[in-house]
Amino acid sequence: MKSILSVALPQQAYNVVIAPQVRTQVGAWLSDRQQPLLKPGQKVLLVSNPVIFKHYGEQAIASLTQAGFQVSHCILPAGERYKTLKSVQKLYDAALANRLERGSAMVALGGGVIGDMTGFAAATWLRGIAVVQMPTSLLAMVDASIGGKTGVNHPQGKNLIGAFHQPRLVLIDPQVLKTLPAREFRAGMAEVIKYGVIWDVDLFEQLEAAERLDQLRHISADLLQSILTRSCQAKAEVVAEDEKEGGLRAILNYGHTLGHAVESLTGYRSVNHGEAVAIGMVAAGQIAAEMGWWTEAECDRQLALIQKTGLPTHIPAELSINDILETLKTDKKVKDGQVRFVLPTRIGEAKVTNQVEASVIRQVSEQLQAP
């Protein structure tokens, strides 16, 4: 099975290719005769982490080398806590050591952390060079690799330093998910559920109909292809309408407002991104129900789906609700001093609002805190 989707941006459209074994064909895709992204002989810096490079790095390098590119690589530590300017400095050092030019490219082979850092380095090296995304986690496949959001974390908040820099190509190989830890697979499912809630009711109902969603081995090849294709299509459609989050694209932050606060306050260690988003979606769903934006029945359907995926639904007991409320004020989506939430109006639709009262946020947060 192969799907090719287009992210139809006016200045630079690009394709998202979802196909088995595409990780071994990256050189061919970059040097495609009809529309080459790079010319043979140009330099490519492959960026990965130690675990992913061990599994797939040599395959990607062999494909790029066979296509005639000059390939070097840079290995960065795995984990959200390493998504810092210090790590990006290592990318700049590698780019300088290997004399990357404006016609060169960086290829991100890894999860969302690698993709975000590589994209940011590419956006800022020589004022912008090409980047190709080869996501290896479910979360990166359906979310982080598409749309051009790049960046790193600041000690006071997540993704506060960054730039919009669209990839030239996204290559998604579902087969690499076989080596993804079960916890990371569940984390990616949080973003999939997000698309169902805010954009694609058919996707939501497909997930509801599945018997189990907590491990890859319980998901059929057809359902996995549908999950990847429909999620990527949703992201592509939203980004095509609003590339730089001037309006509609903000709905992609569903679950991320409170989720980012939980993630940063736990030091990016005990709660990963997808788990934090799941908690944030439960909170946003409860807030929407409290405000009468959607029904209790719809709120319960979302909660049941998150629980079926095996994701957490409670704020960790060790976190202070006061600290969460303070952290929300530093969220990058704050506008005119007002915290903005994405709230569902029904399954398949959502809106952005800055009208959520602090008392409601506190009430829901206290209700959701683990005993």
From TrEMBL:
Q: Source organism's superkingdom?
A: Bacteria
InterPro entries for the chain? Dehydroquinate_synthase, DHQ_synth_AroB, DHQ_synth_fam, DHQS/DOIS_N, DHQS_C
Textual note on the cofactor: Binds 1 divalent metal cation per subunit. Can use either Co(2+) or Zn(2+).
The record's similarity note reads:
Belongs to the sugar phosphate cyclases superfamily. Dehydroquinate synthase family.
* Enzyme class, broadest EC rank: lyase
Q: Which organism is it from?
A: Almyronema epifaneia S1
Q: What is this protein called?
A: 3-dehydroquinate synthase
Q: Which Pfam families match?
A: DHQ_synthase, DHQS_C
What is its cofactor? Co(2+); Zn(2+); NAD(+)
Q: Where in the cell is it found?
A: Cytoplasm
